[in-house]
Fold protein-tyrosine-phosphatase.
Amino acid sequence: MSFAICFVCTGNICRSPMAESVFRARVADAGLDGLVVVDSAGTGGWHEGDGADHRTVSVLRANGYESAHVARQFRADWFGRLDLVIALDEGHLRELRRLAPTGADAAKVRLLRSYDPAVRGDLDVPDPYYGGMDGFEECLEMVEAASEGLLAAVREVVEERAA
C-alpha cells in the first residue's frame, strides 16, 4: 500500500507545485517510487486547469526539477485517501484543518517547514506570487531544506508498513 501526500498552498501555481516537484525528486532519489504518491492542490480554485506560474517553472527547471503541472483545488473528500497533507503556511493549515471531516483527518495536516530542524520561529513559506524571482528562489531553498526531514519521516512510515 502506497503512502499518499499532498502539498497545499493558495492557488496551486507557486509553492505547492514547487514542493510537489522537489519532493517527487527526493522520493525517486531515495528509491521510493511506487511506494510514495506525491500530489499538490490549492485551497482555492482560481487557477484550476492552469499550469504553474512561469517563475515557478523557471526556478524548477534551472535547478533540475520537472515542472509539468495542472492546478486544482483541494477537496475535503481527498482526506480519506491521503496519509499526509502538507500546508505551506499557517493560513492553509487552519483552512485544511477546518475542511477535515474528522479529527484524525485534521491530524494529517502539517506545515512543511516543521520538518526543517534548522527553522526557529516562523514556519510559513512566504507566497512569492506578488514579488520577483528572488522570492521564488527563496521559496525553493525553504522547500528543499524541509524536504529532507519530510522524506525521513515518510520513509520511516513506509518502512514500518513494509515490515
